[in-house]
Amino acid sequence: MSEEKLGFVGKQVKDIYGTFIGRVVGIITEIDGEIETVGVDCGSGGLKQLPYEQLVMQGDYVFFIPRWRLDAQKLLRQKSLTLKRIKALQDIVAENDSMKEDAELVSIKYEKKLNDLEGSENQINARLDQRVKELDAEVRNIKAVLFDAKLQFRSNEMKEETYQQIKVQTDELIEHINNEKTEITNVRAKLATQTLENIAAATAAPVAATLSGQVPVVESPPSEQVAPPIQVSATGESVASASADAGSEQVPAETSWLNQVITK
């Protein structure tokens, strides 16, 4: 086992949105020495075993990537490639009708794959719906804590300094939750735009521009635009980067190291 993997022990664990989870106290390995899970002390929440594949070490922290995010990224890649291949098959037949019979055999394979992916998409959307409900419930609990602190402050049971500390902490927790909800919205939007029509439109645009003598502007098709995820600083804090458009909302951005991990 490499020293890098053993370096997990003793490090603090946060999710990729900045929320503290606990501290690594040990690891469980397979018979071949590969890490299976990482034991994290979550305080009153007890010792939790987090899957190794959902963890990545960066600096002094270990970051936890939600399962829904890994599954959604995998689905987006698979669906995009399947749609591109179906479109390529259609183009081949349109250019050479004699290949229609051969193309149909391959097309059946990819049509079946697309149907399977649509089933997976429905399951992921259901999980995202459930996750949003969980996050909304967390926000309500956090706001209840803040409101109670405000009551104590107004009734002179709590010093203003203490109240302000509570407000800073609860605002930060809500910000982390909003970051995750924003990313869920982005993932849903990307899944919705991954259609054969959009793939065809994205392919036709540069061709039409070339035929007209114009220099085509290369842009990512709707199915390939990267949803603005979360940036985690070296200190483990989530950071929202400002949009280039001054009139648009701020969206989270993601560091390259994390993007490389989740897109493998």
Q: Strand content of the residues, in percent?
A: 15-25%
Give the neighbour order of strands across the main sheet.
Answer: 4-3-2-1-6-5
Overall pLDDT metric? 78
Distance between the termini: 21 Å
Please state the CA-atom Rg, rounded to the nearest Å: 24 Å
Q: How many domains comprise the coordinates?
A: 2
**SSE pattern:** HEEEEEEHHHHEEEH
Extract low-pLDDT stretches. Answer: 215-264
Class by SSE composition: alpha+beta
Helix content: 40-55%
Number of strands: 9
Question: How would you describe the shape?
Answer: elongated
Our count of helices gives 6
List the helices and strands and how they pair.
Elements lengths: L2 H4 L5 E4 L4 E10 L5 E7 L5 E5 L3 E4 L2 E4 L2 H29 L4 H55 L5 H34 L2 H16 L19 E2 L5 E4 L9 E2 L3 H7 L2
Helix pairs in contact: 2-3, 2-4, 3-4
Describe the structure in brief.
With 264 residues, the chain is α+β, with helices and mostly antiparallel strands.
